[in-house]
Amino acid sequence: MKVNTANGQEINLKSVDPEDMDDVLVKIEKSFNISLNDTSVNDVQNFGKLCDVVVEKVKKTNDGCTTQQAFYKLRNAINASSGYDKDIIKPQTKLADLFPRDSRIEAVAAIEEEMGFQIRLLQPKQWIINLFSMVLVVSFVLAFYYLAIGIAGMVIAGIGLRLAGRFGKEMHVKTIGDLAEKIAREHYMKCKREASAVNKNEVSEKLRRLIVTNG
What we know:
Layout: H1 18-32, H2 47-62, H3 66-82, H4 95-98, H5 104-115, E1 122-123, H6 126-142, H7 147-167, E2 170-171, H8 176-186, H9 188-191, H10 200-212
Antiparallel strand pairs: 1-2
Helix pairs in contact: 2-10, 3-5, 3-8, 6-7
């Protein structure tokens, strides 16, 4: 395949032999780690369209597995805040091994600060939640008969639940992988890579070189 122009945008793919074009698409797949199985030669008759197709494919690949991206974000935050080597932080790693109970609140707070959002990992023991929840319900009912007692009970229950939540040390997920799934579910957009990270000019230049050297 011959390309006589140095300006990639001027390359007309319509006149390219289909077999040559197939070779180009295979090279593009390997270079950008994308799949073009759903892209025909008719879809990429000019260089500009080819660039658009590749850029969109790269974006989708980058955004593909949000849970995986959440894992990397979490691993980096743990490494930065606690100093644990990244090599020992795997999806199956138990959270209890990374966050000893006596320093768990501080360690989680440091990770949240590093990540820029709350991961809501810690909670009080279930019996404490049940106790104050029951006090809240009973106090609400009492308020219809003994207003002052009912209000006092609701205030106590509210303060108790707040303090329990603040100082709770129980983890309702057990592994790094579980926590990554939770983070990806609750902070989906914050875990996705930015689409703007795909530089179209760089993609265009790389495609031009692939085409020029194919033949």
